[in-house]
Amino acid sequence: MNYRINPKTGEKLSLLGFGAMRLPAPEGDPSGIDAEESVRMIRRAVDCGVNYIDTAYTYYEGGSERIVAEALKDGYGDGVSVATKLPVMRLLSADEHEGFLETSLRRLNRDSLEYYLLHGVKERYWPTVKECKTADFLLRKKEEGLIKNVGFSFHGRNFEFFREVLEYAPWDFVQIQLNYMDAGIQAGVKGLKYAASKGLPVFIMEPLKGGKLTERVPPSIQRYWNTLNVKRSAADWGLSWLANFPEVTVILSGMSSMEQLEENVDVLSRPDAGRLSEYELSVISDMAAAYNKLIPYPCTACRYCVGGCPMGIDIPLVISMRNEATIFDCHEKIRDELNHFVRKLPSTCVACGKCEDVCPQRLRVSAILNETAEMFEDESLQWWRAYVNKGGAS
Ligand SMILES: NC(=O)c1ccc[n+]([C@@H]2O[C@H](COP(=O)([O-])OP(=O)(O)OC[C@H]3O[C@@H](n4cnc5c(N)ncnc54)[C@H](OP(=O)(O)O)[C@@H]3O)[C@@H](O)[C@H]2O)c1
After folding, report:
1. pLDDT at 193 over 50
2. Nearest protein Cα to ligand 1, atom 24
């Protein structure tokens, strides 16, 4: 395994971190966990030199934290750093801080944590985080010795908001979504470099875009690969692109099978991991361009449409999901994401046309929302919608 140094603490961290959000599922039940196999995989990762595991209060409603605890029994946890997260998307008042931390510690069977984060900071949750003084709570727990490193994971819209959050408190680390298709969204490469310039370690999530870069390689990309002298798998290209940034400290990957774990360990253990040639970098740019050519609806996320929508639909988000379904041929993943993470579903569109009047791309927004609703909305998840609309998810 290759290791990188945490620039704040001098600690040696494995370049591959184990993301415990996409654990192997029992046959036919993607929301469940194959606990035995998950424990085997985490232990195998530790045996291969992985020394950073990322979990969260919300993953599998605590199931992930419990499995991490189980896997790290019997000496497996020695020298392994565990990160878990305070669920800001569920936070209603400051009184809840202690309970979230205590529950995570209990599930993880620990008295303290190496890394603790605000989970998935977005514009929507930020006012509550500030009102509740959640960062102060984390810093207090650090002083009390319950947490060694405090940080935040970020899913806000752009670099400017990332910088605002980063400058809000004396964080010890940040976690950002980054892969070669998302270089310019959310914190992006700019955020990676900015955080590193402030001396912070940067932990990467969704390095393979949650599996969209590996699930099905489109025929146009496969034809391009066939012409190349360098042969790498889809996972290899994605992880190697990230390893090439010296500012990246740990690449967290959620691995749902032992084969995926073995491959990712191999890629990030190679002596030349992080040394892509100019030619290989140009291959990745060509690949990203080829994916982008498949975009059916060229929304630029300017967000002119959003303010005028009487239903409060996050139109650019819904269109980006609709686009990704085609680009990455990942309809099941999009069905899952749309029904679980989108607050206002596209079917609530009343076709008032206000968005179409202001769209610089002249997109037929109502028709796209309607198509997306027909393709992906799932009525069997009505109970979940009720929960989301009470403020239970993003
Ligand atoms: N803080 C946050 O808000 C937040 C958000 C997202 C993630 N995270 C953390 O970051 C971790 C990493 O993100 P992620 O899970 O999205 O990582 P990822 O590596 O982008 O996606 C994981 C998925 O990629 C596919 N994959 C992984 N290795 C592969 C390989 N060698 N060959 C083929 N497919 C492969 C699998 O998809 P299939 O299962 O479809 O095969 C796997 O489930 C998470 O596990 C979680 O701990 C945090």
Report:
1. yes
2. 211
Q: How far apart are CA 66 and CA 68, in angstroms?
A: 5
Counting ligand 1 atoms within 8 A of each CB, the residue from 253, 269, 336, 340 with the most, and so the one to mutate, is: 253
Question: Which residues are registered as beta bridge partners of 160?
Answer: none
CA pair distance 264, 255, nearest whole angstrom: 9
pTM greater than the 0.85 cutoff = yes
Residue nearest to atom 27 of ligand 1 (CA): 255
Helix (H) or strand (E) holding 14: strand 12-14
Structure tokens, 9: 């603490």
Residue identifier of the C-alpha nearest atom 44 of ligand 1 = 19
Cβ–Cβ under 8 Å, residues 248 and 4: yes
Residue 241 burial (C-beta neighbours within 10 Å; 0-12, 13-18, 19+): buried
Beta strand pairing call for 3-5 and 12-14: antiparallel
If asked whether residues 74 and 166 sit together in one domain, one would say: yes
| DSSP state at residue 110 | -
Whole-angstrom distance, CA of residue 277 vs CA of residue 152: 33
What range does the domain containing 202 cover?
3-285
In one-letter notation, the amino acid at residue 292 is N
Domain count, the chain: 2
Among 236, 268, 285, give the residue marking a domain's end. Answer: 285
Same-domain status, 281 and 321:
no
Residue 295 in any domain: the answer is no
Ligand 1 atom at shortest distance from the alpha carbon of 205:
10
Residues 173 and 34 in one domain: yes
3-class DSSP state for residue 288?
A: helix
Pocket of ligand 1 (CB under 6 A): 19-22, 54, 119-120, 153, 155, 175, 205-211, 214-215, 235, 252-256, 260, 263-264
Q: For residue range 209-263, what is the model confidence (pLDDT) as tens digits?
A: 999 999 888 888 888 888 998 899 999 999 999 999 999 999 999 999 999 999 9
Say if residue 72 is in the same domain as residue 111.
yes
- Read off the pLDDT of residues 293-320 as tens digits, 9 standing for 90 and up: 999 999 988 899 998 899 999 999 999 9
Q: Which atom of ligand 1 is nearest to the CA of 236?
A: 31
CB 69 within 8 A of CB 77: no
